[in-house]
Specification:
The protein is an alpha+beta fold. The chain contains three helices and seven strands. The strands form two sheets. It has a four-stranded antiparallel β-sheet.
């Protein structure tokens, strides 16, 4: 079966690269096409039956669903999907109390000295694992 149609927005402007995807049968989400620069699409395949369901979608618009029999020569008008975002308030931060970088614990050497037992233990475990693997290979 062959289906043809057009995808436009509320202003009847073509939606270039709108997706037309089958959402039923063995080829679910694996078979479809995109609208061209004029919003036109055409799809022909033996797996399409009059009852095959298709999703027509485009980024920023609400998807619509149609049977193949409903798509013949149809112009599909997609509506914008406007999502309200929570309010975001930006205000200047208070100046940090300690701005002297020398007092910040950002020195890598200090970090490793502070956590030397953790890193030493991890190193020992890795070493023992390598020894065990070497012994297994020798057998």
């Amino acid at each position: 079966m062959e289906i043809k149609g057009k995808v436009v927005d509320n202003n009847k402007e073509p939606l270039y690269l709108a997706n037309i995807t089958i959402v039923t049968g063995s080829q679910i989400n694996k078979f479809g096409t995109s609208a061209n620069g004029n919003g036109d699409f055409s799809l022909s395949n033996d797996i399409i039956t009059p009852d095959s369901q298709f999703r027509i979608s485009y980024q920023g618009f609400k998807p619509q669903y149609f049977r193949a029999s409903e798509l013949q020569g149809k112009t599909i008008k997609l509506e914008e999907d406007i999502t309200a975002l929570p309010e975001l308030v930006l205000r200047p931060q208070d100046k940090p109390k300690n701005t002297n970088i020398e007092n910040q614990p950002s020195n890598i050497k200090e970090h490793f000295q502070k956590h030397k037992f953790v890193y030493g233990g991890l190193g020992a475990l890795v070493g023992l694992s390598l020894i065990a693997l070497s012994i297994k290979k020798l057998k």
